[in-house]
User: Fold these one by one.
Assistant:
Number 1:
Amino acid sequence: MQIHNRSLGFNIVILSLTFLAVILLLFSLLWPKPIASSTPLPENLYTAKSVGHQVVIYQSGRPEPIMMTGIDIRTLPPVDQQALSEGISLRDATALAHLLEDYDA
């Protein structure tokens, strides 16, 4: 009788471990996988440039400006004026907001 009880306990442990392994396998197979985007996001959504004496904002893919800021570039340091003449690429709306806040101060 003693051997039978040990065998039963061992079988219960093995059965429990097998059940756990099957559950984990199902989770790993059914867990949603990240989907790679087929359309890459543009690296820089906005560009700030100087047009005349004003800071102007362009959006990626649009030839016309989306914002005429009214910020006079002559009030900015020469380094910023040079950067704006070449165009400053901005990754997102937050970066654009920070740039405008810095220049408008």
Number 2:
Amino acid sequence: MEVLELTEKEQATILMDKFIDLQRIKAAGDREKEIQYQLKTTKAKLEALGIVTEDSNID
């Protein structure tokens, strides 16, 4: 198995994206709709990286 290392800048970018996502959920008028959107986009990103999500709880 190949181990991938992230630079500090890459790690910071990932955490900033996570923070933004949480802020979007917190501020959403329809939180459930925003959560579903976040799940959908996360699933698409995982699948684009070749990670199978059909057996996960991401609906």
Number 3:
Amino acid sequence: MRKTHTGVAYEKIMEELMKAYVGSEIIEQVLNIEDLEKDSLPMRYRLIALGFLKQDTLEDLNDNLINNGCQPLYARSSFETTLIYAFANRLSFPEWKKIAKVCEEAKNNWEKSSDKQMFFRGKYITLRDLEEYVLSYSEKNDKDLVTKQITRVLDEEIRALGDDYSRFFHFYISNLQEFSDVREKTRYYFCKYLYYYILSKIDRYKKCVGNQIPNQEQLLELLPLKVESKLRRRKTDPEQLMDILRECAISPAAIFEEFNYYFFGYVSIDWVDLMLENISDVNELKDSQVEMIANYLRNSASKSELTQINEFRDKELVQNRIELLQKDEENGVTNRKGENAIRKYLRGDLDIDRTTLICFLLFWGSEETNRNEINISEERMNDILDECGFSMLRKKEPFDEFVINYIKSSDPVSYLMAEMDRYQERGESFFVYEVYSRSGSNAKEIRKSMSL
């Protein structure tokens, strides 16, 4: 498969406007202008403002949001739960504004006096961290994990409170731990399918290696976990393997590189860095590996870097790269945007938009990451999208049409390549390129705009 479209900017489809979490400042701005169709304002908040003006019911507003490609109000957002209460009780904009201000003050006081971070607290995210997060929001059903309905329960409770403000404030304060700066259901599915993905790789490793000493190729099966140094040149009882792996850090860089390889079939310079992160000295590598890595480093260098790089012999060049990576890891530095995005998705620092979620579900939901066997059905994809508050797949939307055809194709790889060629011929960017590039979570902007 051909290389490198990674530098092409990925253009989000229009409905991704809905992921821009602004807040009451935008709503108030819309309410104070005559033209509610002003294009500079996010569609989602224009519709919420219009809902206040029309005195919409909560059902009317959510239907209007969904019909315009936007997410309905989300009960686990500390900001939007006040909107749900306001529209459920047909409150005016000034009435909602007073409630929102009191709630924001309560939230700020709570955050100052408590540790709101329940998961992924350490410097590194381990497999145990991921497992604890997924299991905490899941219920076991046979062999599968079924998501708990926290968002739905909160939504139903808000609707049942009535117009007694004191009951709402008690509800709000009692559930502060459940609120999230990102859409938690989307984060949950991202983490759940990553967890399944890692477990499937562990199962294949155990079947292949047993209690023998693994070779380098077998260890690559576990690349999403930083485990090589613990398993290399040693026998491990398969029964004890999970105990070892649970304490290993997850590698967001390796996950993103495997995502790239799944869709595009190429090895990038980031993949080379991943190989070197587990090496402390160039002499641990074979001569053929040194030559290959040195060639990658030279081929990926800019013109300004190439003159200096060519002064080094292969071993010197690779050793310099190893030392640079070690220094960056000690300082917590990385320039890999995809790696950073995945880390922030896991920690709940970035929202996961609809396009990104779908692309990663296709990757993790494949049959043993074989691009010729897509194991996640259109029905299952729609169930997840609906649970996350996203619109389900629509054949009239170009991206959705691609997803549906990709899932159903008897030869997904050929279909993918043909679609990429078609977009390139038209001079357009393909959907999957840099899906993470515009991820954002504007929690700070919410808090700022709600300081009324």
Number 4:
Amino acid sequence: MTELMDTFYTSVGQTLVEDILREDGEYNIRTTRQDAEVKRLLGSFHQDTASLIDTLLAEQLAIGELREAAYFRAGFRLALELTR
């Protein structure tokens, strides 16, 4: 069942979620602003420090994606239970 949910999550993420986020003006503004701030921040540090910060930020993004997937799985399981 987990493999099915993972496949479904990936499919939904690549279609519905991307469309919803693309249409959300606030999301676009915030991500553009955040990307610019990260570039500015990394540019102000020594190369080794910038690399460490970049690694930390990448880990934070990965953790967020794992949480997002867990929320989706929980919602999917709840929806399955409600259809019984």
